[in-house]
Amino acid sequence: MLDTLFTYINSIRPISDELREAIASSFEIIEVPKRHKLLVEGQTSNYIYAVEKGLLRMYYVKDGEEICSRFMDEQYMLAMSVNSFYSRTPGYEYIETLELSVLGRIHYDKLQQLYNKYIEFNYTARVITERFYIRSEERLFLIRKQTAEERYVFYINKYPEMYQRVPLKYIATYLGITLETLSRIRKRISQGKSTL
What's the number of domains the chain is made of? Predict the structure, then answer.
């Protein structure tokens, strides 16, 4: 198990057999049903989840509305509430499965032990962190700089597989638009009336 995780790690930098075994023994494999909450507001994020199979969403609640901030599948790989996990404080985010999911999870304490014992693993963690921040900045750019239609087109071009798996109401909140606006954009594009 954890084949997807190790493929991802080795795409950054091949690791030693010893480190591979240490990582494998530090992760717990769990199967989680659809619509299961792995994290809720007010909890401290104690685990990083590696998505071996399935789909998760991260969201927060604002004025009674769920606002999606991230979708995580086998390509995105790792899921956690970053601020809560690293600050060791209760967070404001939720993590929920959108599909039946097979996940590997590692506790914060075990991850720190790996960092301390295997210096080479710190390089991998740095690259993973860089990739996370790139995606976070990409979302900020989408929300702040582009029109609703540009956001939608960028999203479906960059993440076509996610577009097929995530309900439209969640995509709309991720893009910072209403479901009605998203429906109008999709209709306009399908009729060849896009403004792009």
Answer: 2
